[in-house]
Each structure stands twice: as C-alpha cells, then as structure tokens.
Amino acid sequence: MRVFAKHMFVLAAVIAVFLESSVAVAQSTGNKTVPAGNAQLHLSYAPLVRGAAPAVVNIYTAKTVNVRRFAPLFNDPFFQQFFGGQIRRSVPGAKKKVQNSLGSGVIVSSDGTIVTNHHVIEGAEEIKVVLSDRREFEAIIVGKDERTDLAVLKIKNAGKDFSFLELNNSDNLEVGDLVLAIGNPFGVGQTVTSGIVSALARTQIGVSDLGSFIQTDAAINPGNSGGALIGMDGKLIGINTAIFSKSGGSMGIGFAIPSNMVSSVVRAIQTGGRAVRPWFGASGHGVTADIARNIGLDRPVGVMITNVFDNGPAKRAGIIRGDVVLNMGGHEVQNPQDLRFRIATLSPGGSVDLSVWRNRKTQNIALPLEAPPEIPAKNETILKGRSPVAGALTANLSPALADELGLSMNNINGVIILKIIKNSNASRFGFASGDIFKEINGQSVSSVSGLMRILKTPSKLWRITIDRGGRKMSMAIKS
Question: 148: domain CATH number?
Fold first, then answer.
C-alpha cells in the first residue's frame, strides 16, 4: 500500500510539473488555454469588471405619446377578450403621456462619447445617463444608424475625462472565447454576467439588415440593450443588442453587434454626421451544394453574382454575372448578408481585395470603395390632386437612397413612396411606405416628374402596378 501511495505521489508530481510547463508555454506563445487546476479555477473576473464597469452607463429616455381615451364600455375585461388591441372607438380629447424606457450604453472615448442601440433612444425627447458611481448627466444624440441599430450620444457639459472602453478587433474572436456582458437588465442596476462566444457571424436574426452578430450564452435580458460585451483583455468586442426568448427573459442565446461594425459607424457619424458606406454595385444569392458541385467548388460558400449595376464599382472592377465572391479583405464570405456586413465595416476611399471564383479558378480583384451616388436627385414630392395616390410622399430612387433604405440592387431605379399622409387618398386605397411605382395606365414610371405628368391626365379608371417587397401588385381603382 505504501509503495502504491509512493507511486501515486510521484505520478501526481509529474502531472503537476507537466501542467505548469504547459501553462507556461501557452502563456509565452500567447496561445489560449483552459484552466490548469483548482488554483486557476478560483481566479476572479473582478479586475476586469473593475476596469470596464465605469465605462458602462445606464440610459433613461422619455418621450411624449398620445393616449386614446376609450369609452368605459370598452374598458370592460369581457369586451377586451374579443376586441383587444383592435378597438379604435375613442372618446374625443386624447391626452398626452410621458413614456419612459431604459437601456444601457458604453463610453468609447474620454470626451463622453457613448454608443448604444438605436432602438434604445428611438423617439426620445430627453436622455439621461447614469454612471456606475451614480452620477447623472444629460446626453444628446450625435447621430444614429437604424440599419445597424446603433446610435452615438454625447454627454452634455462633460467638464472632465471619463473612463472609456477601447474597441478590440472582433474578427479575432473565436467560438469558445470567454466573455462578460455588462448592462442594466430589467432596470435593477448595473449587472455583470459571464459566458462564452457560442457562435459567430449570425445573420438571420431580424434585428438589422447589416447584421453579422456575435452569439453568446452570457445572460442578456431586457435593459441590457446597448451594454458592453467584453473579452478577457477588458476591451469592447460587441454591443449587446438582442436576445432569443419565448418568455421575455434570458434563455442562453444573446446577440451582440461586433466591435468592428461599431467602430465603422462611430467613425462615420463623427466625421459626417451619418453613416455612409461603400456600395458594391452588384447583388447575388448564396451558393447551394448543387451549385457548388456544378461550378467546381469543394463546398457551398460565397455569393454568386446575378446582377451587376452598369456604372457601379463592381462593374469597373471587372466583376461579371456568374462570379462567386469567396473572400473580401481576407475574410471568407459565407452568404449575401455576410458580404453586406463586410462592405459595411469599411469606409469609402481606397479599395479592398476580393477573391472570386470564375471558370473553376480563383481570381483576385481590387474593388474600389466608393459612396453610392445620389443620381438622379431625390426630388422629394408630395403627390396632390384627385388621383388615388394623392397624399404620398415620393422620391426618385438612386444607389444612395436604395442603400439608405436597405433595398436590393434590383430596386435602384424608379419612384418610391417614402411616407403616406394620414387620411389621404393614398392611405384610403392601401398604398404604403416602400411601394415602388412601376406602371400607371399603361405608362412606365421612371421619375417623380414623369409620374406627375401621368397623374395630370384625368382618368375614370386608374390601373396601377407597384412593387411591394419584391412582389408586383396590380390594381384597378375607379375615380
């Protein structure tokens, strides 16, 4: 028994020496490593939190909304079972009410510049930020970008330097990396949760059309929106923005906007007041297994180009229909959403290298990075008169407007409805924002001025064709 114990002691000593040497090698080479023993498992995140927490703020917003006053009969729970939110019969004299909401934000520079989610401050008339040390400040909106769900704020009358978080390169993240989420869930106050990176480049989230999200199992709940996701170096790697939940609480699946996108939006807003992104000048679809097999790719990856804009950057770079974009700037492109994300993280000016699959070979192409042109000019016009579309605010489509509205390359020509005036003819006949006029009474619609000429001719029967969300719809309306 003593001999056995002696052997076990020697074996344990050898394992301990091996683990210590492995950790030392990993640390010296910069490689990532799992905890080597109980001593490392007892280490704390406290130093990281101590450094990051002062840069994470709670955001409180207020806006005035109109509240309908319903007849007492419709307040009865019995009637609400059947009518619910469909009741529209209100008593005259709607009253105004101040609506409050909360979220989180991250200070990203010492002058009090804050990044948060667009949906946190949307419609806000007043914004108050509260620091971790409970100091309160008013903030103003510097700029916002609905397409990425990001907004940039600035603390008013800052007066002194603020703690801030440095942005890291989110492209260096790997699945399995440890992360911390800091925010204000449910308004209970600043809270820290930990987890790992569960997945990268999640695109089918439905939060924004330029999303390629970091997925984490760190607990994220309502109120965490706009808060920080940090790595083990204490730097910002993402802005927490959404959760997957059936109950309203955390279910271990949260999503954050990568810091590279955050950096791009902040830089653009600080430079020009709004986010201006390069445009590709082409569109396409994902590569399926069948397509990959037919064109000689060893796996389904990339974006197959199906449409190239005549005067766009892609055309001038030599991209043609049938090309498959595999890589942009050294990063693999998985699908069209991934391609849009990669372009959106870049700034106009210079070029970016593409790897393109053509004729069963890889070709390298330099794509010029250019802002989309506003040609033709927008020419915003409210349609008037007695036609069915009177009361629609319209504009000429251009690459710039299509990019601003998040439209596909198939919709960069024609006339689009930007807004419908309440109780107008256009509202009564069911037209909606985003509708694109294609044809009226047999005549093609290509510009606002042309549309107005067509509408000047009286008609007893209006035959109108529109594009709504990629689908053509035709209608006949009697005047």
Answer: 2.40.10.10
> What DSSP character marks residue 167?
B
Tracing tokens 């927008």 back to the chain, one arrives at 378
This prediction has a pTM of 0.74
Tokens of 286: 């994902």
The Cα 474–Cα 479 span in angstroms is 16
Summarised one tens digit per residue, pLDDT across range 204-246 is: 555 555 667 888 888 887 778 889 999 999 999 999 987 665 5
Question: What's the rounded Cα separation, in Å, for the pair 317 and 308?
Answer: 11
Cis preceding-peptide flag for 92 (omega within 30 of 0): no
CATH code of the domain covering residue 456? 2.30.42.10
Per-residue pLDDT of 415-464, as tens digits, reads: 999 999 999 999 999 999 999 999 999 999 999 999 999 999 989 999 99
What span, in angstroms and rounded, lies between the C-alpha atoms of 388 and 461? Answer: 10
Active site residues: 119, 149, 225
Report how far residue 103's alpha carbon sits from residue 220's, in angstroms, rounded to the nearest whole number: 12
2: left (phi over 0), alpha (psi -120 to 50) or beta: alpha
Domain carrying residue 295? 282-368
Question: Which pair of tokens denotes residue 444?
Answer: 């093609």
Q: 336-344 and 259-272 are packed helices; what angle lies between their axes, rounded to 10 degrees?
A: 50
Task: With CA atoms as reference, report the closest residue to 178 among 53, 23, 45, 55.
Answer: 45
